[in-house]
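May I ask for a single protein's sequence together with how it folds?
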Amino acid sequence: MPRPSVPRLSRDQIAAAALSQIDETGALSLPKLAATLNVSVSSIYHHFANGREEVIEGIRGLLTREVIDPLDPTMGWREYTEQWAHRYRSAMARHPHVVPLLTLQTVSAPETLASYEALAMVLRKAGFAADDLLHVVSVLDCFILGSALDASAPLDVWADSGAPESALSAAIAATRAQPGDRSRRSFEIGLHILIAGLADLLR
């Protein structure tokens, strides 16, 4: 008797389906993922031996390859860091539900490690000390991931009390009157402040 036909799977196909599931539900279930792909859970383990954690790293690598293109390492560290931060935020802001899952485990996706390595090399070349460098990368990482989550926040993050003397209410009204994306504007301001602070640290 011939063996039943089994759909050919790839790591990228599984990771893409897992990302779609997380986008829709905010969680990752391997049995549900297997059902979506019309395969057994063991087929997923065939490609991702460490299971759920490795699938999440596959998603991380997929996002890196698709959105974070290589940057010119000869750029100045400010320009390089700004462009890297914008691309990283763009990748994560499209899939905010995956961000909490990514932060729960060690980064091991080769593509993502290569992206961080390139950033670290530029910063080291600029003169950042070895005992500061990991902290600098971590601060950038935390800021960008937080901004990616903010991109999916409600339009009104803070309730307006309407109190005449409230500084927060006045700020809310002024922000509502501004054109464009409030979250992106917050990101731009924060990144400017962060780069300026890193420049102070470098000096």
Remarks:
- The chain has one domain: 11-154+162-202.
